[in-house]
Amino acid sequence: MKVSVVIPLYNEEENVMELYGRLKHVLEAMKSGYEIIFVDDGSTDSTFSLVEKIQEKDSRVMAISFRRNFGQTAAFAAGFDYADGDVIVTLDGDLQNDPADIPRLLEAMKDCDIVSGWRKRRKDPFISRRLPSIIANRLISKVTGVELHDYGCSLKAYRRDVVKNLRLYGEMHRFIPAVAKWYGVKITEIETNHYPRLRGKSKYGISRTMKVLLDLITVKFLLSFSTKPLQFFGPVGLLSSLAGFMISLYLSLEKVLLGRAIGGRPLLLLGALLIIVGIQFIGLGLIGEMVVRVYHESQQKPIYVIRKVLGNEDK
Q: Could you tell me the CATH number of the domain that includes residue 32?
């Protein structure tokens, strides 16, 4: 079984050499085929220069460089596109994930399709990192129905056929287990080691947490209504139109049977507004149906642009 290890990097010049050394030690001890794919996400330091030097000396290393910073999801997507292992393992490039956990992930994969790491003893600041993560993990589990303790842990293992069928964008990489579950894959979670960041600067913050929450709304919609948007917008539109129609009917009967003036009543405006809103929701659902059809019949826009690829001669 060949293993592809995908590692996104962004300004990790202080960590990449040590990470490579640890990773190579673990993979060689496994005595199975492997490749290491470093994806430089538009670093502004010497990260890619160091990766180039590694690749020159090790033919099992592939180096991919983006023209600019496209984000971690795009970096994972590029790694998945170029990986040819039977199993694809992902981890961060900041030395907080432990490469020594990889054999344990592969062992757990015998009975499932995705193995997700759980940083049970996470070594990050509580207020700025761990607390938002706890809240987000519980919310994601509740919304998606996939019970994981740690969606944000990059240390995961996937069967090749799982990730090759996924289209990623935004901050969607953390939702891969939830999206894959929709396809019927089996997912498990194991505890993994976690270390504090000793060198370099963290790229996570509150703004990224907000992006994750917004992407969660997108994921929920895609999982439930991606192929049937009219079933989401239609009922709302019908209820709104029905309520507006009933109000308008009531006022019309008052006008005809009782002779009351209805021109200046707020209820008349409400009835008209509900009818208009209902029609708009139904129209939005129909537009969504057309967009879905066009989406499935056309090629998706690429989410990254590569400047250079090294170590890809045989692919």
A: 3.90.550.10
User: How confident is the model over 129-184, as pLDDT tens digits?
Assistant: 778 788 888 888 888 888 888 888 999 999 998 888 777 776 778 888 888 887 78
309 found inside a domain: no
Which pLDDT belongs to residue 192?
93
Asked if residue 220 and residue 146 are part of one domain, the reply reads: yes
pLDDT in tens, 300-311: 556 666 777 888
SS (H, E, C) the chain: CCEEEEEEECCCCCCHHHHHHHHHHHHHHHCCCEEEEEEECCCCCCHHHHHHHHHHHCCCEEEEEECCCCCHHHHHHHHHHHCCCCEEEECCCCCCECHHHHHHHHHHHHHCCEEEEECCCCCCCHHHHHHHHHHHHHHHHHHHCCCCCCCCCCCEEEEHHHHCCCCCCCCHHHHHHHHHHHCCCCEEEEECCECCCCCCCCCCCHHHHHHHHHHHHHHHHHHHHCCCCHHHHHHHHHHHHHHHHHHHHHHHHHHHHHCCCCCCCHHHHHHHHHHHHHHHHHHHHHHHHHHHHHHHHCCCCCCCCEEEEECCCCC
